[in-house]
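Sequence in, structure out. First:
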Amino acid sequence: MSYNLLKGKKGIIFGALDERSIAWRTALRCHEEGAELVLSNAPVAMRMGEINKLAEIVNAPVIACDVSSNEDVTNLITKTMEHFGGGVDFILHSIGMSINVRKGKHYTEIDYGFNAKSLDISAMSLHRVLATAMKLDAINDWGSVVALTYIAAQRVFPDYNEMADAKALLESVSRSFGYHYGVKKHVRVNTISQSPVKTTAGSGVKGFDGFLEYAEKMSPLGNASADDCANYCVMMFSDMTKMVTMQNLFHDGGFSFTGVTEAVINKM
């Protein structure tokens, strides 16, 4: 059901890989709510995924962007403004990558060169996108930026590895830049700390299935799905949340504030 919450709004969605990804589901919901979109992903992800299929459904251009490149980010935002004839009203940052995880390196033995790349792509890319957007005046007054994160930024999940550090940095960038963009243009910047979701990216984490089952049993409402998260993103992009900024918003069925549940005790 559509409520026209984003009618007339324009936005950029980063990170849609395939039908299971949160960014993909969010793009669909934004389109249903009346938004016009530009889709973007890294060149390698675009070759691996099915983003052109999504582009046809939501009638959006696809612009490749390596978010670790200043030139690529500038190109993306410039072309987006040309496409729309002006600025955007919202951006979804759904980006994460860990070379150390891919190569099976334990957290205590990470390669620091790989780590720098992981932090750059997974966290500092948000800073790069926001800094470029501010320089080009690409986000309209009262715009909204959302980045997807995970509670491993606050708690230890051993197999989440260096991505926990990346998410902590991502949340810090959101708060710090949220202040500056709020003062300058009333642009709000928030992170959504989502339940584990069986996406292509999430499934790459060691022991993910057990992880998913545990979270389900520890959450009074159960795990929030990708579609649930898409709905939350729509709300955050809408004018209904104009005074919410610099927040890390838990969207996890109550997992984040539950000490233990009967289901977990019974399992033990």
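Second:
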Amino acid sequence: MTNNIAQLISAVEQADSSASLLEAVQNLASSRLEEAVPTLIAALGYNNPGAAVAAVDGLIAIGSKAVEPLLSLLDNYNYGARAWAVRALAGIGDPRGFDILLDAAENDFALSVRRAAARGLGTIHWQLLPSEQVLTKQQQAIETLIQVAKDPEWVVRYAAVTGLEALAGAISETQPEILPQITAPLLEIANNDEEVAIRARAWMAINQQQNENNAIEMPNIKTLAESDDEKQVPSRGSSRRT
């Protein structure tokens, strides 16, 4: 371990205020060094959301080398740290975190974790999986994201749409035969979701998958907004889990 990384780690361990801890974690995260992983993971459990966000960003930047330590964290730390770890795994996109994201997207208590997991399911690095596992995992992701698209929280449903769009892009060349499994539910969302932003986003995702000669014209935002006279837009507060 170089003197520089040792100093950065020591600064985190010796921080004596919220502000100094945040700065120290940010500096350590910016190093992007594997040696920083244990200390960044420890920061996920501190009662300092700013430091936790910085640690998550650092772990995502480090990437695959942080995955195994993060998976170990899930069994040993409190819920708060586990929630931050799920967000880091979602951002990294390593398939080793797939099952964790699958469960978190549908079942986690916190809407922010469900949202992050839904996005993460769309951006898994499928090429890192054995080829014989890819289709099965992708179909699992599709099924879960379709379910998450019914979440009571609009921000989670929005994330599910973006996850489905990203997944459609990943499979469009390798598994085009399963694209209807994505476009059909997206069309239902585009026509029926109570939130105008989600309907518009679903139309964008659908159009992304259409060729120029067979494109579905996306309604403009004004048209969608006017249709809200016939729909009751849900509250953006918590309607289920908090």
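Remark: The chain has 13 helices and no strands.
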